[in-house]
Design goal:
The complex is a heterodimer of chains A (about 160) and B (about 300). Helices cover about 70% and strands about 0% of the residues of chain A. Chain A is mostly helical and about 160 residues long. In chain A, helix 2 crosses helix 4 (about 75-95), helix 2 (about 40-50) packs across helix 6 and helix 5 (about 100-125) crosses helix 6 (about 135-160). The mean pLDDT of chain A is about 85. Chain B has about 300 residues and is α+β, with helices and mostly antiparallel strands. Mean pLDDT of chain B is about 80; it is low at about 285-299. The chains are: A mainly alpha (about 160), B alpha+beta (about 300). At the A-B interface, helix 1, helix 3 and helix 4 of A face helix 2 and helix 3 of B.
Amino acid sequence: MTTARPTGRWVIVISFLVAFLLAGVPLPGELQRFRPDWVTMVLIYWCMALPHRIGIGVGWSVGLLLDIGRGALLGQHALALAVVAYLTLQTYRRIRVAPLWQQAFSVLAFLLVEQILIFWISGVIGYPPRDWWYLAPAIGGMALWPLLFVILRDARRYFQVS
Amino acid sequence: MATLKPSRRIRYLFAVNPTAVLRLGLWGALSIILMTVDHRYQTLDDMRDVLSTMVYPLHYLVRLPTDASNWLSENLANRDALLEENSRLREKQVFLNVQLQRLTVLEAENRRLRSLLESAVNTPERVLIAELLAVDFDPYRHHILLNRGRRHGVYVGQPVLDQHGVIGQIIRADPLTATAILITDPNHALPIQINRTGVRTLALGTGDFQKLELPHIPNNEDVKVGDLLVTSGMGGRFPRGYPVGTVTTVEFDPGSPFAHIIAKPVAQLDRIREVMLLESEPPTLKPEPGSAVATVQAP
């Protein structure tokens, strides 16, 4: 496996593209508050599945694209996603063997770290969060993690990404 | 891995990747530098221009499904529905034309009276139509991305309206796109006056699409539920007299000097699709201090 050339780069690229796309789709009413951070979740998945290929640098670059797409401060999402990638890289061996619903709790922790980092930076530049709803996307992300995991795992196996 | 002894296997599970710490430190430092520079100085604007042009196709890709479904529903609409819509629109056009006739007379009269009073009128010259590309889903920042940029003549501070009223203003103009801040953003304040009484105040954003806050109105002021708020033209950004919102609640608290007044924007800020950019006059108030000096010395 180590001697084989990395394959299926386009699967990874397309999964990130779809995540960007999903992040822009409007949701009805109250569900909007729980909109999961698709890009972060896809990043966590690939860090867990292919830790030798996807890591902190990829997380940082994807985060920078998010910053530009959302018009946020340059480096805000980049820092948060780099930290999430780091946490996943240090713990993927333990998380990967756990059942899906237990994985979801680890993912919740990562997503909370990400949200808190992003809103902490927003607070520093003068946009402090007004209530606790800003943590809601992490809960939405936890709820949808098993679904995302199964879809991405099947895609990875089908296209033999390694 | 199956060949590992149990103790080795546990050690494998808890192994720490030493270079990851180093890499996190490097990338983290880079992003902190980037954030500081982006926040404090304007030097990264060129880089942002380049990068925003690079992500531009991505925004179109995101819109593709909705665009395609709109295209399909327009093309597959049956003939009767189209005919009906056509006649309805024609009726509406006649109605609007009649109103417009009255408006032209009124406008001419207004201009004559104002010239008698020797006061300035700023009538908007041109309107640019822009489409929404993306919405900032950060719940505390009401920013939208539009598909018109500096190439099309968009400038920072340009007022943004929809068919009902004021939406916001441009805060960043990239080559092909522009970012607008909505009037409901917590960091936005809009100089307004109450149309019925002429009382001037500000409309502050609250972070809620349905709410604007009106501070500094004394308890004894005449404000009623349903009063229309229009732009007052103070501050020089927005031309006078565009509808902003209607007053929804008025609460008088005897303990505080000011009334607690909440208004609802007339524009439907959470379902914007197309907006109008008003080109009132060339921007006289430029953010950079160097240019002001230059224009004074030029003539």
